[in-house]
Design brief:
Blueprint: H1 2-12, E1 24-27, H2 32-40, E2 49-52, H3 54-67, H4 80-95, H5 101-116, H6 136-143, H7 156-168, H8 172-176, H9 185-197, H10 206-210
Parallel strand pairs: 1-2
Length: 214
């Protein structure tokens, strides 16, 4: 249904009183709607650029980390709080570096290496420099103070296990699709209102399903 709706929206644009073109398509990962709109070729060969919702991209990190629970030995499994923290760090890194792919890349890896850092093995090479840095180690370094104690968020085994996930989610093509730092919050909010009035799980009359569209 969403796929057909997207195609119809794009197909209508040339017939508006003031014709326009939607050149960007904001969606989650492998969107069938985006594929359908692209294949419809509404604009006679003019490409439509896909953008990824930053919320969904960050959730991919959380999903990947949760899947690691099975292979990791008992006592070394990632806790829910740790997963949520890393997912939040990832999303902040993306949103805080809109229009800067390299900035996103460095900020994401800063969150990873900072989370693996210990008192005896510092790993803050991607952390921002200066006295106002969020990194306590870099802040202390700039102020000429001793490095503070810190307990790593990820153990050595956990850090090694999650490394491939971070490599996948720092791919340049993926980050390029997050360049504007957009989310689908507005669309999902509208959808929730529509389904509240006309839920998919219950029969609805013609009058009922027309009402939410007004």
């Amino acid at each position: 249904m969403e796929t057909e709706a997207a195609v119809r929206i794009w197909q209508r644009t040339p017939s508006y009183k003031t014709p326009l073109r939607f050149t960007k398509f904001l969606s989650d990962g492998d969107s069938k709607a985006f594929t359908a709109v692209s294949e419809a070729d509404v604009y006679d060969g003019a490409a439509i650029e896909k953008e990824d919702c930053t919320n969904h991209v960050a959730k991919r990190l959380g999903t990947g980390l949760r899947k690691l629970r099975t292979p990791l030995p008992r006592g070394k499994k990632l806790k829910d709080g740790t997963i949520q923290k890393l997912q939040t760090y990832y999303q902040i890194a993306v949103i805080s570096n809109r229009a800067d792919i390299r900035g996103m890349y460095c900020a994401i890896w800063a969150s990873y290496f900072h989370s693996c850092s210990t008192n005896t093995a510092h790993s803050h090479k991607f952390c921002p420099e200066g006295a106002t840095s969020w990194c306590k180690h870099k802040r202390a370094e700039a102020l000429g103070e001793p490095a503070p104690d810190h307990t790593p968020t990820l153990t050595k085994a956990q850090g090694k296990a999650v490394l491939p996930i971070y490599r996948r989610l720092t791919d340049e093509k993926l980050l390029a699709r997050c360049i504007r730092g957009k989310t689908q919050n507005a669309a999902e909010s509208l959808n929730s209102k529509i389904w509240l009035l006309c839920p998919k799980t219950r029969f609805a009359s013609r009058t009922s399903w027309k009402r939410p569209q007004r």
